[in-house]
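User: Here's a protein and a ligand (flavin-adenine dinucleotide). What would the complex look like?
Assistant: Let me lay out the input and then the predicted complex.
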Amino acid sequence: MESSCLIWFRKDLRLSDNPAVTAAKNFKHVYPVYIIDDDIYENKFLGGASIWWLENSLNSLNLDMKNSLKVFKGDSLKIIPKICDDLKINSVFWNRCYEKDRIFKDTKLKEYLLANNIEAKSFNASLLWEPWIIKNKSGNPYKVFTPFFKSGCLESSSPRKPLKKPENILFKKINTMLEEYKFNYTTEKNHWSAKFHKYWKVGELGAKKNFDKFLNNGAKNYSVGRNFPSAENVSKLSPYLHWGEISPFEVWYGAKSKMSGENKNVFLSEIGWREFAYHLLYNFPNLQEKNLKNNFDSFPWQKNETFLKRWEKGMTGFPIVDAGMRELWETGYMHNRVRMITSSFLVKNLLQNWQLGKDWFWDCLLDADAASNSASWQWVAGTGTDATPFFRIFNPITQSQKFDESANYIKKYLPELKNLPTKLIFSPFEYDKHTLKKYGVVLGENYPSPIINYSESRKRAINTYTKFINKD
Ligand SMILES: Cc1cc2nc3c(=O)[nH]c(=O)nc-3n(C[C@H](O)[C@H](O)[C@H](O)COP(=O)(O)OP(=O)(O)OC[C@H]3O[C@@H](n4cnc5c(N)ncnc54)[C@H](O)[C@@H]3O)c2cc1C
């Protein structure tokens, strides 16, 4: 039996199908650690919702390892060598991340450890296909989803099978002079995030239960039902996948064995979108902060604080947009269709820079993810590699009539509109005030008047994009 091993947890907060944990199974002493490293964007600018999830997730992992997890805050390039020194560690194992700042520090750490005769191994725990493996015929990264997924991923080797949780690992708590980090999230937002407990069971067990529930229920009508925000057909796995409480391998093979037909194909391709986002992040490392189409650097966004604040708070006067933004605030999640509607509204109808929307989502989403969030916002804004055509503007009125036909979703998050007949609810501003008053709605008093005239804003967006694109 070998002696001491350090497992450095990051976005792999689970014990089953965790290659770093499996690799440690024959060691006599296995020390788990998590480090909040302020050199890493995701740690330094951790959103409010993410802090809540992370704290709960680490608590849950700690319990699963019988109270042996230590959390530190600081420079991982200093903390890990110090632990190795203090505890005479022989091997350090971790699972790979794909953000440029993480890659930079991981490379430095590996160099240091190897130079000091400490075994250093990294593994793949969070992507079905490593982003450097999938290349197009010219040897370049893919820029468009369909060929990436169909010709790139599906025609390459099958993802590996999930690993079983190793039995009998005796995790030990690190004992060093380093100061342990205690979460102390006592701002006003603490109060805000406390309610997330109502909606989410954080941790590996929560992830598994959530997935089983989906496979036994929503999955059976996924391909159609996933478009309807009030239907319970989506998996809500995104935060679990982001934090690594369930692995994409478990999800991929679980779905393959339990789902069938179109439901299965569509679900697997959505998992493919997650892979694509990471493929873009790895190959275009500035995805988070720069337009992938750099000509958009001079796009005439029309900065307007009032528009932004009203969008953030769900006070635009467009019910489906407001319901989505309030779902986000209330639950830390927003249904995908509504993410598309609300983001299109901000970027196209209000002509606000996609970065502002991305930042708000980053702060409020429990699944806030450098790859998926940035890639999706760039897709909506038309600044990405595989983007919606600029003239595709999600019409919040027709979208809600089609996908929230009985207005159950709108009524759930906008109770002030719940007495309006369905015909009126999608665009109350189109009806006269006496009619609305009969149903308890007074625009500008208990529900906002619309912040823009919809058809004018659509024309303005198309004109602005057309002029801009033709200028080049
Ligand atoms: C503006 C905008 C911002 C977004 N920000 C994020 C984000 O920060 N984090 C995030 O995980 N997803 C993001 N998405 C993608 C998508 O909306 C969510 O992944 C999905 O809504 C999560 O719900 P679910 O788990 O019930 O999805 P399901 O429909 O059950 O899909 C299963 C899984 O597939 C993956 N997936 C599905 N759709 C996408 C997609 N379009 N792009 C990437 N992965 C996808 C997710 O991991 C998801 O959990 C964003 C989409 C938009 C339009």
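Summary: The chain has a mean pLDDT of 95.
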